[in-house]
Recover the amino acids of this structure.
């Protein structure tokens, strides 16, 4: 610790120490919430916070008034760089860096579409695998089936079905949780409009019970749309 | 609009991409210059130093591990260069610069206050702080560095960062009081 830090005497208030960083917006969310709470209940602390804000404004003003370096700095730098031996691309640029560079080249919209497509692919894959497993478990499978068999061609089984479209923001984990919690099985899809056919009960349900069940499923955040099938 | 991150630029600089170096320089050189200038108080020296800072970046980019922000890394290099330059100067030069920077107290405090608005007095008092206190106030308020980033740049524990900032502000309040502005704290 430096001498300048050691001229203490009075104990420092932990929250008061954080005020400069709170004013600059560089505190963690948790610390910022603590400071906000303290400011709301302590008028003297709030007054001192205003002093911090004055210092912040003055410091920014002072630094901005310092101007910028002349072109001399840039010229000197790039002259020195030009005189350096030319480097070839380093083979050590690791895969993570290249991947990061590659992803950074996409717009946020493209990345969102890609993430959506990835989620859909996972759901379809889960549906296909789930369908195959359920089919084999029921003993109705007589012969060899490839895992890549189109999910839309899953055999018709007894039970009650509904059409469902998952919310765009639902992750693969959300959808898996939703299916498991409600004991649902994807029986077909994806179809036009991103719809899937799901089995909601292994037996035929009365119309009223089915309507109640669908209404309950609709309230889940993973669901965008769900409807019964005649 | 999307901009290439500093980390990606550093990766390209490591492969010898001069355009990436130009982008990084354009993005950061003014702030690095101001940080150095506040320490060395000489424009020509500050310009020389930022050339050296970015030349180090060009040479060392392949060693950047990404454990801190690029701007934090730049300020760490800049600080080291500035302190080295300051050590080379004679004590007399430093004394002259300090004398120039200290607020002129020849006027009565009330007269002094009447001449300048409060903001101007505050800015003048900020220049009268010691290099150590100037540095921490600039890093926190102007360069928007968090406690751990300041600790990394200055090379002190995080707890010391907080207490040093506190005493820098306390010293500033004392200088303000000497110049007719009593803020009722500390």
């Amino acid at each position: 610790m430096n001498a300048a830090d050691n001229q203490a005497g009075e104990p420092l208030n932990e929250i008061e120490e954080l005020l400069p960083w709170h004013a600059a917006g560089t505190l963690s969310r948790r610390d910022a919430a603590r400071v906000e709470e303290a400011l709301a209940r302590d008028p003297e602390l709030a007054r001192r916070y205003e002093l911090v804000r004055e210092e912040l404004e003055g410091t920014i003003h002072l630094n901005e008034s310092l101007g910028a370096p002349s072109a001399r700095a840039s010229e000197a730098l790039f002259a020195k760089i030009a005189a350096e031996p030319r480097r070839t691309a380093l083979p050590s640029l690791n895969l993570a860096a290249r991947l990061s560079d590659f992803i950074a080249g996409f717009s946020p919209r493209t990345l969102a579409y890609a993430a959506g497509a990835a989620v859909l692919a996972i759901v379809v894959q889960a549906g296909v695998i789930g369908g195959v497993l359920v089919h084999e478990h029921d003993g109705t499978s007589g012969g060899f089936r490839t895992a890549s068999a189109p999910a839309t061609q899953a055999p018709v089984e007894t039970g009650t079905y509904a059409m469902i479209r998952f919310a765009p923001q639902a992750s693969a984990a959300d959808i898996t949780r939703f299916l498991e919690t409600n004991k649902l099985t994807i029986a077909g899809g994806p179809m036009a409009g991103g719809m899937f056919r799901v089995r909601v009960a292994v037996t035929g349900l009365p119309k009223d019970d089915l309507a109640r069940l669908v209404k309950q499923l609709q309230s889940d955040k993973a669901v965008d749309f769900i409807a019964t099938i005649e | 609009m999307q901009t290439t991150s500093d980390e990606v630029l550093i990766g390209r600089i490591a492969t010898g991409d001069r355009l990436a170096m130009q982008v990084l320089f354009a993005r950061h050189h003014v702030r690095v210059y101001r940080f150095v200038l506040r320490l060395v108080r000489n424009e020509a020296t500050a310009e020389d130093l930022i050339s050296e800072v970015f030349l180090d970046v060009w040479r060392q980019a392949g060693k950047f591990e990404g454990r801190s922000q690029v701007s934090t890394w730049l300020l760490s290099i800049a600080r080291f260069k500035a302190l080295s330059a300051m050590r080379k100067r004679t004590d007399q030069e430093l004394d002259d610069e300090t004398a120039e920077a200290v607020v002129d107290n020849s006027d009565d405090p009330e007269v002094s206050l009447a001449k300048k608005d409060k903001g101007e007095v505050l800015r003048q008092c900020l220049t009268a702080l010691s290099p150590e206190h100037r540095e921490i106030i600039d890093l926190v308020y102007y360069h928007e560095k968090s406690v751990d980033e300041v600790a990394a740049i200055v090379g002190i524990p995080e707890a010391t960062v907080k207490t040093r900032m506190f005493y820098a502000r306390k010293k500033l309040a004392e200088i303000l009081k000497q110049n007719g502005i009593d803020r009722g704290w500390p």
In short: Chain B touches chain A through 66 residues (CB under 8 Å). The longest helix of chain B spans residues 18-40.
